[in-house]
Amino acid sequence: MGTDRSSSDPQKIDQVDAQLPQTQCEKCGYQGCRLYAEAMIHEQVAINRCPPGGTSGIHTLAKLLDREEIELDPACGREVPRVQVRIVEADCIGCTKCIQACPVDAIVGAPKRMHSVVAELCTGCELCIEPCPVDCIETLPAATPRMLAEESSQARIRYRARLARLQRIDLQTRSQRDQALSKQSQEGSTRAAVLAAIARGRARREQEKC
Q1: Is the pLDDT of residue 62 over 70?
Q2: CA 142, 146, 149: angle at the middle one, nearest 5?
Q3: Which residue, of 19, 36, 59, 91, has the greatest Cβ tally within 10 A?
Q4: Are 62 and 47 spatial neighbours (Cβ–Cβ below 8 Å)?
C-alpha cells in the first residue's frame, strides 16, 4: 500500500489538507497543516501524527491515501478535547510574544498594552503559551471538542493570510536593507573618490614646490 508519488499534485495535497483540522499546532512536526499534507504525499510520512484530528482523522486519511489505519503516535501528543486560550489581562505586560506566535492572528493588542484573545478565532494550538514570559495565558475548554468544518476553513484562510503578510514584510525588510547597503556603498565610493582627488592635489602641489 501507499500513495503513488506520481499523484503528489497540488489538487491531491489540497484534498489531504482539507481533512486536517487546521489548528496549525505543529504537533505533527511540521510548520502548518499543509506542510504535513505535502509530507504525507511526498515523503510518505505516517498518517498518525495529528492529535487534534485524532482517531477519526487517521481513519479518514487512511481511506484517502490508501494506507493502513494505525494508532495515534504518542510522541506527537494525546487525543484530547480542544481547548482555547485566555490571557489573564491583569498580568499581561504587552510584550507581543503571544501575538507573534499565534498562527491565525487570534490575539490582538499593541506593544506595552494589554493583549486579549478573540475566542471564536482561537484554534487551541497553544503555541502562544511557551513564549509568554509572565505565564499569563491559561487554557479553557473550547465551545466544541473539535474544530468544525467552517472553523477549519476560516483558520486555513487566516493562516495563509498571515504567512503572506509575513512574506511581504520580509521582502520589504530585505529591500530596505539592500537599499541601505547600496547607499552606504555609494557614499563610501564617493568619499573614496574625494579623498583620492585631495591626495592627487596635494601630490601635485608638492611637485610644483620642487
Answers
A1: yes
A2: 115
A3: 36
A4: yes
CA–CA distance, 77 with 67 (Å, rounded to integer)? 21
Mean pLDDT, residues 191-199? 78
What are the cell numbers at 46?
505516517
Beta pairing class for 107-108 and 83-87: unpaired
Whether residue 8 is predicted with pLDDT greater than 90 in this model: the reply is no
Q: Where are the alpha helices (DSSP H) in the chain?
A: 10-18, 33-42, 54-65, 97-101, 149-209
Q: Count the neighbouring beta carbons within 10 Å of the beta carbon of residue 206.
A: 9
Domains along the sequence of the chain with CATH = 5-76 (1.10.15), 83-141 (3.30.70.20)
Which of 41-50, 70-79, 164-173 has the largest mean confidence?
70-79
Q: Give the whole-angstrom CA distance, residue 181 versus residue 145.
A: 52
CA separation for the pair 61, 67 (Å, rounded): 8
> b/e string for 10-44 if b means 16 or more Cβ within 10 A?
eebbeebbbbbbbbbbbbbebebbbbbbbbbbeee
Virtual torsion, Cα 178, 184, 186, 191, nearest 10 deg: -170
Higher-scoring residue by pLDDT: 48, 183: 48
pTM of the model: 0.77
